[in-house]
Amino acid sequence: MSDECRRLILDRIRQHGPLTFADFMETAQYHPEVGYYATSARRSGRGGDFYTSVDVGPVFGEFLARQFAEMGRLIESASSGVRSPKSEVGSQTSDSGHRTPDYVDLVEAGAGNGRLSRDVLETLGTMAPDLYGRVRLRLVERSAPAREAQPATLGRHASRLASSTADLPSPIHGILFANELLDALPTHAVVSREEGLREIVVDEVGDRLVERESPASPAIEEYFESLGVRLAPGWRAEANLQAIEWVRNAARALRRGFLVLIDYGHEAKVLYSASHAQGTLATFSGHVVEAFDERRDAPWLRDPGRCDVTAHVDFTSIRDAAVAGGLEPLCLVDQMHFLLGLGVEEWLQEHAGSSRQDLTRRLALKTLLVPGGLGSTHHVMIFGRNVGRPDLKGCR
Questions:
Q1: Under a CB-based contact definition with an 8 Å cutoff, are residues 50 and 287 in contact?
Q2: How many separate domains does the chain show?
Q3: Residue 179, domain extent
Q4: How many Å apart are CA 314 and CA 342, to the nearest integer?
Q5: Pair 36, 28: CB distance under 8 Å
Q6: Does residue 198 fall inside a structural domain?
Q7: Is residue 331 in a domain?
Q8: H or E segment at 93?
Q9: Is 175 within a domain?
Q10: Phi, psi for 363 (deg, rounded to 5)
């Protein structure tokens, strides 16, 4: 498939000229026939190219379920009202006269084959059976093979699956969450020169894909100006305009409830500083990470469609987009503190045995918590709409 993806990209360049990096990444990652994510139901784990928190076992889903159970109670409280005999089936009328559904949407974006949602539902079924019974699971995934694998992955929870689509549903009354989605969205790439910003585009020389520089678009100029960021000459960086648009769409879709985003990245003042002067674009293939190195060809141009391409998330612009969309920012915490707030000590007491299963689960939790690893590189951003400003356990 890699050769087919390369040929497709070369044909596009020859017909339409150089591609922005975002357009190149869109094809390499998401083309429905030859894109990296489109040709497999699962890309992470031991047999894949990278690890996520989901790959260490069901522990991550267990803790997310703890947070979702608390959120479910808060949504119910915010939506409470007296049922009206004239209200539609599946809804209730609040004191203010607004109809609110008696289900809770659980929407996972970038759901893959549904492993994380399965782990969440497994715990909710035991911890919060009333909420579990009202959950309407809606999975969002662009990969057709991954969507096809979801019912089998969900197993006994497949009956909760209400929809599986490539696009975000609307409206959403409940919890919308995404684990490592924004970092994989197609991003623009830039380099700063003495005369100003230049956009990095993908061109061809013979049958080779190469990077060239082009005048930066007004949208990219506005992106950095809005952040008050000036890159020093020679610095590379990314501007993920699609991630901002995704958050805007999510804010429009969420009518009442929470948006939970889990990803790696930094605030703008850190992301666009000397500590990341070469940008954060990287590829993952066979658990080998490659970043930009001016001494050789960019790794993402070597085998498009065969490696994962990713860039760190700018938390500042994500928060700004959410707030502009009417969402209330509730917290930004690293994954370690998020899990600690959700009761790690209590969980350890529950799994204090010496059985192989308990030992495996404790090792998995350590992997999720360890500083310098997933515990500190990954962060959790939580936003709310029409739920007030609750003191969520994961935000403490």
A1: yes
A2: 1
A3: 2-191+221-395
A4: 25
A5: yes
A6: no
A7: yes
A8: strand 91-93
A9: yes
A10: -65, -40
CATH number at residue 299: 3.40.50.12710
Written as tens digits, the pLDDT of the chain (396 aa) is 458 999 999 999 999 999 999 999 999 999 999 998 887 655 666 666 666 778 888 999 999 999 999 999 999 988 774 333 333 334 444 444 456 678 999 999 999 999 999 999 999 999 999 999 999 999 999 999 999 999 999 999 999 999 999 999 999 999 999 999 999 999 999 999 999 999 999 999 988 999 999 999 999 999 999 999 999 999 999 999 999 999 999 999 999 999 999 999 999 999 999 999 999 999 988 778 888 887 778 999 999 998 999 999 999 999 999 999 999 999 999 999 999 999 988 888 887 777 887 788 888 888 888 887 777 899 999 999 999 999 999 998
For residue 77 the two structure tokens come to 């409280």
Instruction: Give the whole-angstrom CA distance, residue 210 versus residue 104.
Output: 48
Task: Write b or e for each residue in 313-347: b if 16 or more Cβ atoms lie within 10 A of its Cβ, otherwise e.
Answer: bbbbbbbbbbeebebbbbbbbbbbbbbbbbeeeeb
The predicted model scores a pTM of 0.91
**DSSP string of 261-302?**
EEEEEE-HHHHTSGGGTB---EEEETTEEEE--TTS--GGGT
Is residue 208 included in any domain, yes or no?
no
